[in-house]
Write a structure and sequence with these properties.
13 strands; seven-stranded mixed sheet; 60s Ribosomal Protein L30, Chain: A
């Protein structure tokens, strides 16, 4: 093989082996979150490559997007929106936030309220307990009782297991299995990765797919679904990371059937 042919072959191999460049209208990065006070509700921001991005407002754990934590870095995965800046930051919508569990004492920035950054919209609900309006909202499709099978997908934060928001879809799985006379439950846990905006690939723990699947199976058995046939498996989809919808790959698929 000539030197030119060998070089072309090497370049072709590299193009297959390395992840593609992340899309320019997406922002996937890890940074310290910043909380800014306002006259209504605090807002959360993050800085990346000299720019400030708006993440979410302060709300409770029942909201679709949970705020990050001070003292921890956060993985931000979002699409740049054409909405006006909020709290001085470019709006990412949709956005997925994953708290990095390791403590980081440098993540402690709190900014005072400034009139120019007051929010121009109302928080999603009044301060105080949600009284169930958000806490019991179920984003999953509710299967009709009587159909032969039901598929529910549980989404996860990076490297995480079951969280508060999973309570309702798990309850739906339980109710459907009981009322439809189901005999089988197939649970598949998925491990994924995120292609960061700087081109680096951030992979979840090697056994996270297995842990997710087994935890869901244990929770369903513990809730009383111990007379069904369980098929528990897991797979690795880290190679599918593209920088666009990587957060959606972190999931558990549950199929209930007769």
């Amino acid at each position: 093989m000539s030197r030119v042919a060998a070089t072309l072959a090497l370049l072709a191999w590299c193009s297959l082996a390395l992840p593609a460049s992340p899309p320019k209208h997406h922002r996937n990065f890890v940074a310290c979150p910043i909380v800014r006070d306002t006259s209504t509700v605090p807002c959360w921001l993050a800085e990346h490559e000299g720019e400030t991005y708006f993440l979410t407002i302060q709300t409770d754990v029942s909201a679709p997007v949970n705020p990050p934590w001070l003292g921890h870095k956060v993985l931000v995965e979002g699409t740049i929106s054409d909405e006006p800046r909020i709290c001085g930051g470019i709006v990412l919508k949709p956005v997925a936030l994953s708290v990095i569990q390791e403590l980081d004492g440098s993540c402690n920035t709190m900014l005072p309220a400034e009139e120019r950054y007051n929010l121009t919209f109302e928080p999603p609900r009044p301060p105080g307990p949600s009284k169930g309006r958000l806490a019991f909202g179920d984003p999953t499709t509710k299967p009709a009782i009587g159909q032969t099978s039901s598929v529910v997908e549980l989404g996860y934060e990076f490297d995480s297991l079951v969280m508060f928001r999973h309570a309702q879809p798990l309850q739906r799985i339980f109710e459907h299995a009981r009322q439809s006379g189901a005999t089988k439950v197939k649970i598949t846990g998925v491990r994924a990765a995120t292609l960061l905006s700087n081109g680096q690939l951030m992979q979840e723990q090697a056994n996270i797919g297995q842990r997710r699947a087994e935890q869901v199976a244990d929770l369903l058995r513990g809730a009383g679904l111990d007379n069904l046939q369980y098929e528990v498996s897991w797979r690795d989809e880290t190679k599918r990371a593209s920088g666009t919808e990587d957060a959606a790959l972190r999931r558990v698929l549950v199929v209930v059937s007769r």
